[in-house]
Amino acid sequence: MFDNLLGFFFHWVITAVSLWGASLVFKGIRFSSTSTLIISALLLGFANAVLQPLLIILTFPLTLLTLGLFVLVINALLLMLVAKVVKGFTISSFWTAFFASLFISILSLALGTLAPNAETTIYRLPPTPSAQTISA
Description:
Elements: H1 2-25, E1 29-31, H2 34-58, H3 60-65, H4 70-85, E2 89-91, H5 94-114, H6 131-135
Antiparallel strand pairs: 1-2
Helix pairs in contact: 1-2, 1-5, 2-4, 4-5
């Protein structure tokens, strides 16, 4: 139970650090307070976990035609959605959100791989039984 909670917390911190880094790199991204940043990271993680797969499925033909590049647009739109929902989080334009979401993705990936024993996924399939355990 705590393994999943620890993984969730770890991803939340990585998202928050990535959002903070994006606000330093891109002038069009602003947070009014640290709590706004933390809430935005939580909602962005939720949007990426729940809404992003749904949007990718709904826009699959367009994603296929663009060889997956439309996923970058979906990421930017999700970032803009979080900015609209969270008071105190502002993004100046779509292109700022587009490049910031690319930056956030790359930084999150880099931070996630640097962590000791970090898992890239929280959910795993149960192990399949081996041939020896079935025959025994």
